[in-house]
Specification:
Elements (H helix, E strand, L loop, with lengths): L1 H17 L7 E2 L1 H8 L3 H13 L3 E4 L3 E4 L4 H22 L6 H21 L2 H19 L2 H24 L4 H16 L3 H20 L1
Antiparallel strand pairs: 1-3, 2-3
Helix pairs in contact: 1-3, 2-3, 4-6, 4-7, 4-9, 5-6, 5-8, 6-7, 7-9, 8-9
Keywords: DNA-binding, Transcription, Transcription regulation
InterPro entries: GntR_C, TF_FadR/GntR_C, Tscrpt_reg_HTH_GntR, WH-like_DNA-bd_sf, WH_DNA-bd_sf
GO molecular function: DNA binding; DNA-binding transcription factor activity
């Protein structure tokens, strides 16, 4: 039962984060159970977990509704990302031996994003975007910041997937913005990074809310 519940949880969560099921969409426990070949009970348990993570709103005797990304949530996430990532880069600049290997990693992730953009693969692009920003915080080495940033991951992946689907032509621009962020880190320029990150996040914010 526990394995079935975990499977239902992960499958449903992946659908939400990838944008396969959208905010406001009703999910039926019976239909999900049939799709996965499990009983209704593990699906109900999975839905309870996802409701606790604010990804689903339970509807008695019907299933659950996918919680849309609200304008308030979007603003909160982007503000915290700006603060955490800028602080991470400021810390990195105090230990310059980390800069060169991080710049190489980020450059590879930018190339991966470019491939996703060329293929129009919003899901791949969103995953590479998440990895790009997460590595900046991870390499900085602040464990408290890492845990807090990790708690934002689900929300920011949904936002980026929504942005990529809403405006596929913008993917190439996002790749260029990531390139400028990586360059600012490579040059140990905290002010340039913060300016570029703010513009990058504000542009994403506008696309998500349009």
């Amino acid at each position: 039962m526990q394995k079935s519940s975990q499977r239902a949880y992960q499958a449903t969560k992946d659908q939400i984060l990838s944008g396969e099921v959208r905010g406001g969409q009703l999910l039926s426990e019976v239909e999900v159970a049939t799709q996965l070949g499990v009983s209704r009970t593990p699906v109900h348990e999975a839905f309870l977990r996802l409701a606790a993570e604010d990804l689903l709103d339970l509807v008695p005797r019907r299933g659950a509704v996918v919680v849309p990304v609200s304008p308030h949530d979007t603003t909160d996430v982007l503000e915290m990302r700006l603060a955490l990532e800028t602080a991470a880069v400021r810390r990195l600049c105090r230990s310059p031996e980390s800069i060169e290997p991080l710049f190489a990693e980020l450059s590879e992730l930018v190339d991966e994003q470019r491939r996703g953009a060329a293929a129009g693969d919003a899901r791949q692009f969103a995953a590479a975007d998440d990895a790009f920003h997460r590595r900046i915080v991870e390499v900085a080495g602040n464990s408290i910041a890492q845990r807090f940033y990790g708690s934002l991951s689900d929300r920011q992946r949904r936002m980026m997937t929504d942005a990529a689907r809403a405006d596929p032509a913008r993917l190439a621009l996002l790749v260029d913005e990531h390139g400028r962020l990586a360059e600012a880190i490579g040059q140990r320029d905290v002010n340039a990074f913060e300016t570029a990150l703010l513009a990058h996040l504000e542009a994403t914010y506008r696309v998500v809310l349009e």
